[in-house]
Structures are given as structure tokens and as C-alpha cells.
């Protein structure tokens, strides 16, 4: 049997470049991309996607939808790294550690939608706690996250690394209209009954994310405390290769969270910081927005899908 053909559509963007870098030396697949002169040719793109076994779409949302519409070969499987299909029926959500059996669902899926970077952290923290009943579905969730500027794509990289880099902002909060496109994805896949408040920001570092969710214990069941929340997360991810829950004795001595500590990996670190005196708990996720938040997750999903090739 010949090696499966993996076509990367959009391999010149920040996510596509990193996926290509992670896959270029693999001998178990045949990597396919388009030459620069062919990338905007609809006929050539349609030919390439219909000739592959698995297509990885690293495209803007509209272009990703067009690429999927161009598929006429029923054997073609898709990993979409855009946000076009993350809440759409018929697509398998590509977060293997999210729920029991999710990795198997991804392995057998025809259409996989890669999670957004911010939702990976938010859902990773919230879904196990909601499923266990430790956080009610109608809890007024607030999420704050700071990403490296590569989260803006080429525009962010150019602003901070191009000719005008000296004028780039050191920190900027955005999404002030509280309508960030990741919010419905977080709500749906975390299992929230109400839309969370999500406030994102960019820092003057290339990649990495710190995402935090504060909780008021008085709004939870009377017996729920930080240790119980931590134990739930630790149980859920006990066998996960790429998600680690920091032990409480380690988190209690931390003085800060470094968003860049896991850069270049496909790993995510979750922590629980309880303050029982005030009845507060802070949940946190640290990971690479271009790793577990994008290209690393796509390659992890590809590896699962290849087991069923």
C-alpha cells in the first residue's frame, strides 16, 4: 500500500508553515502543496484536494468553505484549521482529550474541525468540570486570555517583526464588543448554557498563551472547593499525553505564569489556584497558540486519522 497523500492548502500562513515544518521529514506520508503560481487557481486547487487522502485546510473561513465545496471525491478526508466549521453539524471537533472516546471519533471521521487556540484552553478547563456537575451550566463564566502576536497571523508578525516593529504595542486588549468569533465555539463544546464573557489580548511576544477563568465558590455547590475542582481535572487528563494538570503543591508556590514556557510543543498545562480565605479559585491554561492551539493539534488529529487509513 502506498503512503497516504496529505495536501496542505494554505501552507504559507503561520499555521500552514508550522504544519509543513512538522510534516516535511515524515516518511510515512507523501506531502502535497501547491506552487506559488497555482495557489489562487480554483481549478488547480480543486484537482489537488480531490487527489489527496487527507486535506489540511489552513485558509480564511470563506476559502475553507469553498475548498470543502470543491471536494467531489468521497474518499477525501479533511482537517479544517479555520473557524468555518467548528460549530457545524457533521464535523467532528478535533480536541482528542476533550471527552472519553473523542480520539476514536477523530480517527474515524471524514470531516474534522481543528479547535481555535483560545477555545482549546477554555474548553480544556471547563468541560470536565461542567460534565462532572462541579460548575453549573448557567454559571456566569468570564475568560481572559493573552496570546502571542502570531495569533493575528501575518499581520501580527509583520507589525512586530517588520520595518515598523519599534512602534508595535507591547500589549493590547481587543474584542471589546464582546463578540469574538471563538465565543460560540467555547459555549458549545464546553457545554455552557449561557454565552461566556471572553476578553482576549495580544502581548509583545511571538507565540504562547495564558488563559484564565476565575470562579466564585459561593456560586457553586456548598461542598465544592479548589481541591475538588483540581481532582476532577487530574482524573480527566490522567492518561493524556499532551495535557498535564499541575499538582496543587506545585501551583501553590508559583508566583507567575509564563505564556511561552511550552512554545514549540503540542502540550498544554492546566493549573488550579484556590484562595479559600476569600472563596475564590483561578483556573489557568498555558500552551503554544501555534502548537496545541493550531499546528500541533492538526498534526495530532492527522496522526489519529492515519491509523484508519
TrEMBL record:
InterPro entries: AGPR, AGPR_dimerisation_dom, AGPR_type-2, NAD(P)-bd_dom_sf, Semialdehyde_DH_NAD-bd. Its EC number is 1.2.1.38. This is N-acetyl-gamma-glutamyl-phosphate reductase. Catalyzes the NADPH-dependent reduction of N-acetyl-5-glutamyl phosphate to yield N-acetyl-L-glutamate 5-semialdehyde. Residues 5-106 form the Semialdehyde dehydrogenase NAD-binding domain. Its main location: cytoplasm. The active site is at residue 117. It catalyses: N-acetyl-L-glutamate 5-semialdehyde + phosphate + NADP(+) = N-acetyl-L-glutamyl 5-phosphate + NADPH + H(+). One of its GO terms (biological process) is L-arginine biosynthetic process. One of its GO terms (cellular component) is cytoplasm. GO terms for molecular function: N-acetyl-gamma-glutamyl-phosphate reductase activity; NAD binding. Keywords: Amino-acid biosynthesis, Arginine biosynthesis, Cytoplasm, NADP, Oxidoreductase. It is found in: Cytoplasm. Pathway: Amino-acid biosynthesis; L-arginine biosynthesis; N(2)-acetyl-L-ornithine from L-glutamate: step 3/4. Belongs to the NAGSA dehydrogenase family. Type 2 subfamily.
Amino acid at each position: 500500500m502506498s503512503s497516504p497523500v496529505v495536501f496542505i492548502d494554505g501552507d504559507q500562513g503561520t499555521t500552514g508553515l508550522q504544519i509543513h515544518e512538522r510534516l516535511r521529514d515524515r516518511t510515512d506520508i507523501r506531502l502535497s502543496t501547491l506552487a506559488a503560481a497555482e495557489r489562487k487557481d480554483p481549478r488547480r486547487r480543486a484537482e489537488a484536494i480531490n487527489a489527496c487522502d487527507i486535506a489540511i485546510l489552513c485558509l480564511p473561513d470563506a476559502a475553507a468553505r469553498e475548498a470543502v465545496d470543491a471536494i467531489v471525491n468521497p474518499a477525501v478526508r479533511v482537517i479544517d484549521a479555520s473557524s468555518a466549521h467548528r460549530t457545524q453539524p457533521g464535523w467532528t471537533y478535533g480536541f482528542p482529550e476533550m471527552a472519553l472516546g473523542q480520539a476514536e471519533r477523530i480517527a474515524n471521521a471524514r470531516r474534522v474541525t481543528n479547535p481555535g487556540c483560545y477555545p482549546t484552553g477554555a474548553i480544556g478547563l471547563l468541560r470536565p468540570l461542567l460534565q462532572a456537575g462541579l460548575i453549573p451550566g448557567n454559571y456566569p463564566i468570564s475568560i481572559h486570555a493573552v496570546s502571542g502576536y502570531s495569533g493575528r497571523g501575518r499581520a501580527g508578525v509583520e507589525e512586530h517583526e517588520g520595518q515598523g516593529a519599534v512602534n508595535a504595542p507591547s500589549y493590547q486588549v481587543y474584542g471589546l464588543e464582546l463578540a469574538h468569533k471563538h465565543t460560540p465555539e467555547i459555549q458549545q463544546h464546553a457545554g455552557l448554557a449561557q454565552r461566556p464573557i471572553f476578553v482576549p489580548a495580544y502581548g509583545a511576544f511571538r507565540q504562547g498563551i495564558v488563559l484564565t477563568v476565575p470562579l466564585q465558590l459561593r456560586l457553586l455547590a456548598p461542598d465544592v472547593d479548589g481541591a475538588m475542582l483540581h481532582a476532577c481535572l487530574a482524573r480527566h487528563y490522567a492518561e493524556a499525553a499532551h495535557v498535564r494538570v499541575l499538582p496543587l503543591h506545585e501551583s501553590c508556590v508559583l508566583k507567575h505564569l509564563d505564556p511561552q514556557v511550552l512554545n514549540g510543543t503540542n502540550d498544554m498545562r492546566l493549573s488550579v489556584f484556590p484562595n479559600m480565605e476569600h472563596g475564590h479559585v483561578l483556573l489557568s491554561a498555558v500552551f503554544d497558540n501555534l502548537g496545541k492551539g493550531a499546528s500541533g493539534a492538526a498534526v495530532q488529529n492527522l496522526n489519529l486519522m492515519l491509523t484508519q487509513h
